Amino acid sequence: MKYILAPLAGFTDAPFRLMCQEGGADLTYTEMVSAAALAHTHGPTRHLMETLPGEGPVACQIFGANEDEIALATRIVSALKDDAGRPRFCEINLNAGCPMQKVTKCGAGATLVKDPAKVHRLLKAMVANTDLPVTLKTRLGPHPQATTAFELLDAAETAGAKGIAFHARYTSQLHGGPLHLNVLADLVSRAHIPVAGNGSVTDAATAAVMAQTGVSAILLGRATLANPAIFNQLKAAFQPSELPNPPAPPNPPEPSLSLCERHLAYVLAFREQLAAKFPEDHVPSVDGFASVKMHTHLFRYFNGRPGAAALRARLNAVRTLAEIREIIKAGNS
Ligand SMILES: Cc1cc2nc3c(=O)[nH]c(=O)nc-3n(C[C@H](O)[C@H](O)[C@H](O)COP(=O)(O)O)c2cc1C
Question: What is the pLDDT of residues 56-97, one digit of tens each?
């Protein structure tokens, strides 16, 4: 079983991906990148496609609804290289599942769940414009009375996609409600390409249930945010060959505040990299950058600790790196 960090807009930047790779992720995804923005503008969009030295395999996810923009974005992503001159990404993925209005109103993301023929055209445009493997991330259909997943699978296969990931929910469910693992298992049994499963896997028990569908990989999203080491914990706890035995208890997790310090160090390294590489772009000050990243990630490392609420409140109010460091130190003592 492969364990993969799912794309999470606003979260799966290079520092967090590196944390997850160190925590055992076999593959990570960038945040979704707008094909229209890539095709027509420069600037901050390219920050989303930056990787840090030492990152393992990263897939770049794009979203869009226009074939020409998707084709151009695919060429741009495919041409990016890492420091050693190798392709920066190991895969390029089309988002056909995001329910956010700013994405769906342009006909992208979850709008595509309703239109497998269009998904086919977009994927074909990607395949024709890259040597990288092209994959699709999608849902089961717009709502439980309209399952389009089998048509989406067919669209992906006939367009030449090399894999497909299903969030085992319908668009109408957003990110909650029951998973439809029977549909996922059916999809796996019909597929000719690898199928990955996604949705509310938070521990070895939920991973074991998802694994029973026969998926070749599991994407983890929200459960990684406070615990980027979850991938190694799952690997240690759960071997598919052990089914149907109950999973073993996970390894003791690393103290979360040392993770927090490491994450902050990667955030700072990432800011340095952006500032050095894109001097013409606006990159926030060290204090501003650290504060923004701290607001989305670092407070989660305090979950469950004595005094966590007070520490989190202090983190919310801080505006400088020195203050963030003080709070982490206070949390450690
Ligand atoms: C804050 C947030 C941002 C997300 N951003 C993306 C995204 O950029 N691309 C995408 O395909 N899915 C995105 N998703 C969906 C996740 O990748 C995943 O499918 C969903 O959270 C279910 O998995 P989970 O229960 O393990 O979190 C996002 C979800 C959340 C909660």
Answer: 999 999 999 999 999 999 999 999 999 899 999 999 999 999
Q: Of 242, 272, 295, which residue is a domain's last?
A: 242
- Report the C-alpha gap between 67 and 124 in whole angstroms: 9
From the CB of residue 275, how many other CB atoms can be counted at a distance below 10 Å?
16
Cis, bond preceding 250 (omega within 30 deg of 0) = no
Out of 20, 60, 98, 260, pick the active-site residue.
98
At which residue do the structure tokens 């074991």 appear? 208
- Provide the domain count of the chain: 2
Catalytic annotation present for 98: yes
- Name the token pair of 143: 């709502």
Pocket lining: 201 vs ligand 1, CB cutoff 6 Å: yes
The reported pTM is 0.95
Residue among 58, 64, 56, 63 at smallest CA distance from 29 = 58
Residue 313's domain spans which residues? 256-332
* Range 196-211 burial, b when 16+ CB lie within 10 A, else e: bbbbbbebbebbbebb
Question: Distance from the CA of 77 to the center of ligand 1, in angstroms?
Answer: 21
